[in-house]
Amino acid sequence: MKMFVAEITHLKKSFDGNEVLKDINIKLEKGQNLVILGRSGSGKSVLIKCMVGLLNPDFGSISLLGKDIAALSERDLNVLRKKIGFLFQSAALYDSMTVRENLEFPLHGSKEKTRKEIDALVMEMLKNVGLEDAIDKFPSELSGGMRKRIGLARALMLKPEIILYDEPTTGLDPITSREISNLILEVQKKYNAASVIITHDVECARITANHIVMIKDGYCAAEGTFQELSESTDDWIRSFFNQEK
Fold first, then answer.
1. Which of 109, 151, 172, 237 could make a disulfide contact with 177, Cβ separation 3.0–4.6 Å?
2. Mean pLDDT, residues 61-71
């Protein structure tokens, strides 16, 4: 029996009368990498922000880890968010903090871990992304790919059950993009975390996806494995995957 850690039903979201999401229905299985694929401006980032309560949907429901997002108090929503890792498109590191301080930030105010345990956790997460030597550097001293890696390390600090990636390869060269995509795959294998990967990068989707949902004009236009979609005879899907048949 499949276990779903996220369920989105008939989700709608508009801005100033412009319908961005018209009817989105998605289920995320435990341990699955689900890629949401669509062209720029198709509403992918709006969807992911609705999932963590940064935006309120106009209609529909979102359930994460068995909790109805809309029914939660702000306090309960914050508790739930600790079980969800979020890699922002820009990595969203604090410029005035070192890498060490950025990684420690999600644990701010926590009395559950000792200083020694926090130091060990920081090093574990930096080792995951291959950047142990960057621990005392500032974000301005890091390349774009390194910042993405540190952003992922920070997202993993609370060992979340769900990880949300917002355009993880945007702005990166092809080699670094491939490295980040492979890193997403390694994280899935190591932590068995379920992930939603928002992207328009077909190569990232090929490397990371167990399942793909394609968004077009505010709807889930198609879904399947990478191979199934890449072999589709549908004109729009074929053009997206740059297939010639």
1. 172
2. 94
Domains delineated in the chain: 4-240 (3.40.50.300)
Q: Using 50, 70 and 90 to split pLDDT, how confident is the model at 240? A: confident
d(CA 90, CA 192): 25
Whether the Cβ atoms of residue 184 and residue 208 lie closer than 8 Å to each other: yes
Rounded to an integer, what distance in angstroms lies between the CA atom of residue 151 and that of residue 70?
A: 27
Taking only Cα atoms into account, the Rg of the chain, rounded to an integer number of angstroms, comes to 18
The Cβ of residue 239 has, within 10 Å, a number of other Cβ atoms equal to: 9
| pLDDT in the model for residue 178 | 92
List 64's β-bridge partners, or say none.
Answer: 6, 67
**Tens digit of pLDDT for each residue in 134-153?**
999 999 999 988 998 898 89
Please give the order of strands across the beta sheet that includes 59-64: 67-68, 59-64, 4-15, 18-29, 219-224, 211-216, 33-37, 194-199, 162-166, 84-87
Residue 109 has pLDDT above 70, yes or no: no
Please tell me the total number of residues recorded for the chain in this structure. Answer: 245
Mean pLDDT of the chain: 90
Dihedral sign for Cα 145, 148, 154, 159, please: negative
What is the structure's pLDDT at 110?
67
User: Cα torsion at 61, 64, 67, 71 (round to 10°)?
Assistant: -40
